[in-house]
Amino acid sequence: MSALTLFYVGTSYLCAAVFFGGLSYRLAGYAATPSPLRIPLTPQATTVFGVIKKNAVSMAVFRALFIGERWTWVGGYSLHVIFVFVFLRHLRLFINPVPEFLVDLQPLALLFAALLPLPVLFLISRRMYVDRYRYISSGADYFALVLLLVIGLSGLALKFVSHSDLVGVKEFLLGLVLLSPVEMPSHPAFMLHFSLVLLLGFYFPFSKLVHAGGVFLSPTTTQVEDNREQIHANPRGGN
C-alpha cells in the first residue's frame, strides 16, 4: 500500500472519529443543558405525541423558516432536499450489492446533484447583498457555503469533465467501511473531491452546521405546553 493511500486511510478514520465523536459531544452537551423554565414556542401541543407530530411536520418542510423568510426558505429548503438526493446517489458506493430501488433512483439523484451549486450561490448572494444578512454573517458562514459549493463543483467535474475509475473508487470506499483498506485511486479530481469531503467532516462538529442535530434538542420546540385551561394563581395576590 502506497504512502499516499496510508495517509488518506489514516485521515479518513481520524475524520470519522472527529465527526461522530465531536457531534456526539455537542449533542450530549445540548441534551444535558438544564431547562428549568417552560419556554415552548406557542402555539404548542399539550401532549408528547402532539409535540413529536408537530416537529416532524415542521422539520420536514422547514415551517419556521417559511414563516420567517420566504426567499431564504427557497434557498435553504431546496439545498437540503438536494442533499438527500446527493446522499442517496453516493450511497451506492458504500454498499454491496446495491438495492434495485437505489439503482433506479440514480438518474433522478444525478439531476438533483447537478443543481447543488444553484441554492448555494443563492444563499451566498443573500449574505453578500442583503444588508440584514450581511450584518449578521461571519467568515464561518461564508466558509461553510463556499466549501459546500466547491465540493459540489468538484463532484460534478468528476462526473462530466474528468471521469475516474468508478470501480476503483467503490473498492476503496467500501474497503474503508469494512475496515479492509485497499489502494486509493490516484485520480486528481477524485483526490480533490475526497479531500474536501474530509475537510467538511473535520469542520462539521465545530460549526453552525451542527444545527442539523441540535434542532431536535431545542427546549422551545421539544417542551410540552402547559394546559391552557389551567388557572395559575398569583402568589402575591390580586388578579
What features would you describe in this structure?
It is a single chain. This protein is mostly helical and 239 residues long. The protein has one domain (3-222): Fumarate Reductase Cytochrome B subunit, CATH 1.20.950.20. The chain has 12 helices and no strands. It has helices at residues 3-32, 48-61, 63-68, 70-91, 100-114, 117-129, 131-136, 139-160, 166-177, 188-203, 211-214, 219-222. It is globular and about 75 Å long. The mean pLDDT is 87.
List keywords for this structure.
239 residues, mainly alpha, 0% strand
Biggest sheet architecture? none
Distinct helical segment count: 12
CATH topology: Fumarate Reductase Cytochrome B subunit
Which ranges are low-confidence, i.e. pLDDT below 50, for 5 or more consecutive residues?
Answer: none
Whole-number total of structural domains: 1
Mean pLDDT across the residues is 87
Distance between the termini: 79 Å
Rg on CA atoms, Å: 22 Å
CATH architecture: Up-down Bundle
* H and E order: HHHHHHHHHHHH
Give me the oligomer status: single chain
SS content category: mainly alpha
- Beta-sheet strand percentage? under 5%
